[in-house]
Design goal:
Layout lengths: L1 H18 L9 E2 L3 H14 L4 H4 L1 H25 L10 E2 L3 H16 L3 E11 L4 E3 L4 E17 L5 E6 L10 E4 L13 E3 L6 E6 L11 E4 L5 H10 L25 H15 L2 E14 L7 E10 L2 H12 L4 E3 L3 H10 L4 E2 L1 E2 L9 E4 L5 E3 L15 E3 L3 E2 L1 H5 L2 H4 L8 H6 L2 E7 L3 H16 L4 E7 L2 E3 L15 H8 L1 H11 L6 E3 L1 H24 L14 H22 L3 H29 L2 H22 L4 H12 L18 H23 L8 E7 L2 H9 L1 H7 L2 E7 L8 E6 L2 E6 L6 H27 L1 H6 L2 H28 L1
Parallel strand pairs: 1-2, 7-9, 13-21, 20-21, 22-23, 24-25
Antiparallel strand pairs: 3-4, 3-12, 5-6, 5-8, 5-11, 7-10, 8-9, 12-14, 15-19, 16-17, 16-18, 24-27, 26-27
Helix pairs in contact: 8-9, 8-13, 14-15, 15-16, 15-18, 16-18, 16-19, 17-18, 17-19, 17-21, 18-19, 19-20, 24-26
């Protein structure tokens, strides 16, 4: 559903801009989703009783290509079903030849400039996927764990230190215990040595400013090979790095007696041994953030290994400046802060992944001199010593490395293509906030580095789609709404219109089927209005004769004009919600509910009147279809084809025409509609059916308004089902009549002989009592503090809203009752 929202927004922008005459490119494509795809295919071959090692690299990658072709087709199918008007002739894939060439070029250039390097580093490691993960690929989850207090005895027997840890299985890898030099408690310990529990190795006590005196006992075990902070501390103090756990999460030779144990089994064994030896002093409950692999949810293990890194600081600086000087804008603007915060604290990016599906790193290691050859073309020998004994790095690049190049690599870079000249920098990127750093920030950095300009001017960031209760959709909760099912049931246009109209900036979308159904009905409304117009249309559509326009004609054309102006402005501000709402209320409330009714009356007059009314109807339909097209491409295309025999995609976006603006008509029609609405509301409150004509008495002091009412008498009578309408400056209120006040006067509806007053009063009194009871029930509920505190806020708000409605109904019934007494 998130992709459906993303696609809808992109397509609205693209269709709108295309109709507005821009040379518009929406270039579709997919990335190869390295780890995720490899996992899926691994599971698939595991279910067939095989493994990736049994396949071997070449065969495995072939298998992934097959899977990817099928998956890629599914993505394209879904995009097309959503109506995405992409340029399919330019479809790209991050592992196609052109993009792979761009990846190679970027890697080599960054390497040559010293911005890519290979280094031993502590990285996040998934022991299940057996690969490095970038910081962003680790999900932190607060878990209830334990903090173990362990006694480390001084070698000289003069005392001990207590060290707190959540991961006792790493104790065999400890190479020091650190204390803060300002910590009075440990002044005499620094420089002495300790005996490592259960292992018996000697380790030093060191002083380090970074130790938090408040945490645990203020003495910190240092395990450089298994913790990122300890890794840094180890570097500061020149400590050895002892790796006690293999890449698969199983303890190795250096773990002594724990060799061969899984890491969690080892934890239990160490705790038992330390408890037996008296080194485990105590354990306490402790909630802490534990990192999990974002793909397979396995607990990640900090691990030391040789990895490839991109040095980010240099690349980040221009990308920070571009946001500061407005070369790139974030919409909504609030995301700018998140962006700055991350960019200012950026860390080096680990780009090597120990999987097979992806761009294999273009680096070759020499068997003779240990030199590294990084090359644009596959080398035959070592660039350092010339030895032919070289082998390519087994690892592949992080998928985001290739995705970061998307805005220019898809346009043909490093060739200087026409597309690149024409379309770079692009105008807008539409994306979810969840990939702001994975993707957006990195595209910024790479674009500025290799193209010398930002990759896009506007970054439009949309919210999440949640279920009707505001819960995140997930398979385990069973609240996932599948766009394909919704499209089958309600149509794509209904889904798109719903997503667009709910896409308020910064607010998550609570998607309910009722909303979608409501917009399906809107589609039906458009269809029925079009059919009515077609039935009354001449072969040849004529333009309205502006000299012969009636008040309702002038009004609807003026309203149409404001709608065009507002919708265009709102789209320019990425307010798809407001734009959709504006078109919706214009087309349904003003055009269908009001103008169509006025037009029917004009059409009955025949001749010029009829011709002009039909011409106005066609003109409004024509413009509305063009405005609706970006939101509802399918129904608008179908109706447009019937209207003009061409595609609405190629029709021009409507432009506002000052000449059509008619304030006088809007204000006069406002008065006419106000009177009709008042009569209708009185009638419905008293259950007077439309078949029963009621006289209407109007007391209006303004001569101008009386004159206007006189001119529009026919329409007022018809649309309020009135017998006769009397209007005068001194109209007296008839006996036993309902009364209503409108801007400019009062109106009275005589009720004698119209309704059975006793029966109606009885019904109203019954209804009145029911409403009062309901009001009391809600008031009791809302004054109950435990309900207000405990119930979800949604429920409380709903009750309050219902209370307001009921109070409103109550006062209306009260006035109706007063007329009947
Ligand atoms: Zn994993
Ligand atoms: Zn060599």
């Amino acid at each position: 559903m998130g992709h459906a929202l993303n696609t809808t927004i992109q397509d609205i922008i693209v269709r709108w801009k295309r109709m507005s005459g821009f040379n518009t490119l929406w270039l579709p494509g997919t990335d190869h989703a390295g780890i995720a795809t490899q996992n899926v295919v691994e599971r698939q071959i595991a279910s067939e009783g095989s493994s990736r090692n049994e396949y071997g690299r070449k065969k495995f990658v072939e298998k992934v290509w097959k899977w990817r072709e099928q998956y890629g087709r599914t993505i394209v199918y879904q995009l097309k079903r959503l109506g995405g008007s992409c340029d399919w002739s330019r479809e790209r894939f991050t592992m196609d030849d052109g993009m792979s060439a761009a990846v190679r070029e970027v890697f080599v250039r960054l390497y040559e400039e010293g911005l890519i390097c290979r280094d031993s580093y502590i990285i996040n490691w998934c022991p299940r996927c057996m690969t490095a993960l970038s910081d962003l690929e680790v999900e932190h989850e607060n878990l209830q764990g334990k903090l173990y207090h362990v006694r480390y005895d001084l070698t000289d027997g003069s005392g001990f230190l207590i060290v707190a840890t959540t991961r006792p299985e790493t104790i065999p890898g400890d190479t020091a215990v650190a204390v803060n030099p300002r910590d009075e408690r440990y002044r005499d310990f620094t420089g002495k040595t300790l005996i490592l529990p259960v292992i018996g190795r000697e380790i030093p006590v060191i002083a380090d400013d970074s130790v938090d005196m408040e945490f645990g006992t203020g003495a910190l075990k240092i395990t450089p090979a298994h913790d990122p902070n300890d890794f840094e501390a180890g570097n500061r103090h020149g400590l050895p790095r002892i790796k006690v756990m293999g890449d698969d999460g199983v303890m190795n030779d250096d773990a002594g007696p724990y060799k061969g144990m899984d890491r969690f089994k080892c934890r239990k064994a160490i705790l038992k041994d330390m408890s037996d030896s008296g080194n485990l002093v105590r354990e306490e409950d402790y909630t802490h953030a534990v990192g999990h692999c974002y793909r397979c949810k396995t607990v990640i293990e900090p691990n030391i290994s040789k990895q490839w890194f991109v040095r980010m600081k240099t690349l980040a600086e221009p990308a920070i400046r571009a946001a500061e000087d407005g070369s790139v804008r974030f919409i909504p603007k609030g995301w700018e802060n998140t962006y700055f915060e991350w960019m200012n604290n950026i860390k080096d990016w680990c780009i090597s992944r120990q999987i097979w599906w992806g761009h294999q790193i273009p680096a070759w290691y020499c068997g003779r001199c240990e030199g590294i050859t990084v090359s644009r073309t596959d080398p035959a020998s070592c660039g350092n010593c010339g030895s032919p004994d070289i082998r390519q790095d087994e690892d592949v690049l992080d998928t985001w490395f290739s995705s970061a190049l998307w805005p220019f690599s898809t346009l043909g870079w490093p060739e200087e293509t026409g597309d690149l000249k024409r379309f770079y920098p692009t105008s807008v990127l539409v994306t979810g906030f969840d990939i702001l750093f994975f993707w957006v920030a990195r595209m910024m950095m790479m674009g500025l580095k290799f193209m010398g300009d930002v990759p896009f001017r506007d970054v439009c960031i949309h919210a999440l789609v949640r279920d009707a209760e505001g819960q995140k959709m997930s398979k385990s909760k069973g609240n996932v709404i599948d766009p394909l099912v919704i499209m089958d049931q309600y149509g794509t246009d209904a889904l798109r219109f719903t997503l667009a109209s709910m896409a308020s900036p910064g607010r998550d979308i609570k998607l309910s089927e009722e909303r979608i159904e409501g917009y399906r009905n809107f589609g039906n409304k458009i269809w029925n209005a079009a059919r009515f117009i077609f039935m009354n249309m001449q072969e040849e559509a004529v333009r309205p004769d502006r000299a012969a326009l009636t008040l309702p004609d002038r009004w609807i054309l003026s309203r149409l004009n404001s709608t065009v102006r507002d919708v265009t402005q709102m789209l320019g501000e990425y307010r798809f919600d407001l734009a959709a709402g504006t078109i919706y209320s214009f087309f349904w409330r003003e055009f269908c509910d009001w103008y169509l009714e006025f037009a029917k009356i004009q059409m009955q007059e025949g001749g010029n009147r009829k011709e002009n009314a039909v011409a106005v109807l066609v003109s409004v339909l024509d413009t509305s279809l063009r405005m609706l097209h970006p939101f509802m491409p399918f129904i608008t295309e179908e109706i447009w084809q019937q209207l003009h025999g061409s595609s609405v995609m190629k029709a021009p976006w409507p432009s506002a025409e000052d000449a059509l603006e008619d304030e006088a008509a809007e204000s006069e029609m406002g008065s006419v509609m106000d009177i009709i609405k008042n009569v209708r509301s009185l009638r419905s409150g008293l259950n007077i059916p439309p078949s029963k004509e009621v006289d209407v008495y109007l007391k209006i002091e303004s001569d101008a308004l009386r004159k206007l009412i006189g001119e529009q008498m026919g329409c007022i009578k018809r649309l309020s089902y009135a017998g006769s309408v009397f209007s005068g400056a001194g109209t007296k209120r008839p006996e036993l009549s309902a009364i209503s006040v409108f801007a400019g006067g009062e109106l009275y509806l005589p009720l004698a002989g119209i309704i059975d007053i006793d029966k109606e009063r009885g019904l109203l009194e019954k209804r009145f009592k029911a409403i009062v009871d309901e009001i009391i029930r809600i008031e009791n509920k809302l004054s109950n503090s435990s309900f207000v505190e405990r119930a979800p806020q949604e429920v409380v708000l709903k009750e309050k809203e219902r209370h307001r409605e009921l109070m409103d109904q109550k006062s209306r019934i009260e006035s109706n009752l007063s007329w009947l007494k």
